[in-house]
Amino acid sequence: MFFIHHCKKKPIIKWYLCLTFYHFMEKEEVLKRYFGYDAFRPGQSGIIDHVLQGKSALVLMPTGGGKSLCYQVPALMFTGLTIVVSPLISLMKDQVEALRSNGIAARALNSASSETENSIIRRECIEGMVKLLYISPERLMMELPILIPHIRISLFAIDEAHCISGWGHDFRPEYLQLGVLREQYPTVPILALTATADKVTRTDILEQLKMPDARVFISDFDRPNLNLDVMRGLDASGKRREILNFMIRHRDDSGIIYCMSRKNAEQTAQFLQTHHFTATVYHAGLSNYERDKAQEDFINDRIQVVCATIAFGMGINKSNVRFVIHYNLPKSIENFYQEIGRAGRDGLPSDTLLFYSVSDIIQLTHFAQESGQKEVNMERLRRMREYAESDVCRRRILLNYFGQPTTCNCGNCDVCRNPPQRFDGTQLVQKALSAIMRTGENITMRTCADILCGIYSPEVKNHQYHSIKTFGAGHDLPIRDWSDYLLQMLQSGYVELQYDNHCHMRITDAGRDVLFGRATAQLAIVREAEPPARSTQKRRRKTEALYQTHLNLTPPQPEEVQEDTALFDALRELRRKLALEQGMPPYIIFSDKVLHALAQEKPLTTEAFGQISGIGEYKRQKYGELFVSFIKEFHP
Ligand code: ADP
Ligand code: ZN
User: Fold this and answer.
1) 397 CA from centroid of ligand 2 (Å)
2) CA-CA 20 to 30 A from 544: which of 196, 322, 465, 475?
3) Is 7 exposed, middle or buried (0-12, 13-18, 19+ CB in 10 A)?
4) Which architecture characterizes domain 4-218 according to CATH?
5) Domain range list for the chain
């Protein structure tokens, strides 16, 4: 075995035992013993077998899908050392902490440690005391002629492999140098892993890594535990109102709110603070110190919500993120899926909410047009809009995008729960088109809504729009509904935006047909806010059922097993104290899923404790007695 024994000063690794042990363990045994899981997720098993045969591969799996185990399990079974290339120090730190908390000898070599610490790590690697070494690409290049020749390498794992491609959304030039690995170590398998499934990016990764013929494993991209929800056409105050409703349902839960601009991030965080939620911001305008602090506070559950620009999250494996909100439309489905994927890594039900408005389309179209890869980026935006505007099951749109077409409705998105109800909206569309026509197609959507509602906004007054016939023609409807209908008219192609002319609306031929009575128009009823979510436990059961139907995974809990919520809260508190004592994030000690299982099953022996999914041998030994006596005392 390869356990780390904590003595007072410094952990000492009993490495010598490992040399005899690993070959004799089956991969399932490694999974249970080190990670405490009973079964591999779909896809993991085949990938691991492939790597164990010494073959290279590219793995595409959604964020939170379980990529890490695909190289961690082989790493534990091989005799030598596995090198894991990772783009971010925080990501390395997180992974190394999680592995070490399971008694696995993992280390990270990077600029965050002193040279003395790094030389100790180097020595440990040479002496065979390390199983997984996390390293940045540039550091690996430095170490190639110095350290690497002295160690026996069994596998190179390249995490976030899309960083090697200029087509990917996160290009890092340092990754390009990784092409030399194949040449210098032709017999060592390379496992590249990413959540980006884009075809161009995929081919590029294989080419850059000089392994064009390597097998590509594309996993199931479904994350059935993520609830998908979209709200369109809300202005800032509408979004704030909905965020507040949402937060009331998530009073104690960790979450991320992604915003397009720093200003939005700051305002949203302030808004949450005034409503007594602990929230902070994370964006490029902060110092390194401030950013690290925000991330650390979030990881350690000292801060509940981070309002972030897209710069946040890649370095986070926090398993108990319960929700992700997009304050604005993301620029591609890849970005979106990666960001929502940060919720619910532990497999428990988690909520995602996307706000979608015309100003986002305008802004993102502008970015795409200026980007230097105009066609590709406009296409990505178009696909993103397709998701936001969908009136069929949203998960179908996502899975279709990732090359996994399905005809089933998921039952866990707003469209499935609440299918849009249509009505004959011809008259409403005609009113709006008439207003646009009378202004000489010279207005934005916002002004159009003002005119229809009869609002004397500065824009209306400046242009004397209050004197046109359609002013106030739709005053019987709230402006929120008009904004929604106008967005629907854009989606249905009755109007288009003049991007080169202040994004004023222009009536299309299809719109003229409606305006002049040659065609009718259907609109969807504007949806009210969703009712509060069902109880967490019911939702969890439902998610288990979804998992089972879609993925054939762990069976749902029998109905009669009730969770003791008071015990769960007490266990959470115990976990928090332990985390504080040991200076590590609570979710690394145990995931929420493990705590829920403990609160349901209330194990009274350390053996029963060790049977809980997610508790490996090391954690059983380390925490078993403490938790068992805690549970006994809680229910004497
Ligand atoms: P990714 O790197 O693909 O984003 P991770 O490797 O971080 O995802 O895995 C996400 C979560 O799923 C982690 O909390 C991990 O422990 C858990 N997980 C992975 N494989 C399994 C499995 N076979 N059974 C149960 N949980 C798993
Ligand atoms: Zn659905």
Assistant:
1) 9
2) 196
3) exposed
4) 3-Layer(aba) Sandwich (3.40)
5) 4-218, 226-417, 422-524, 561-634
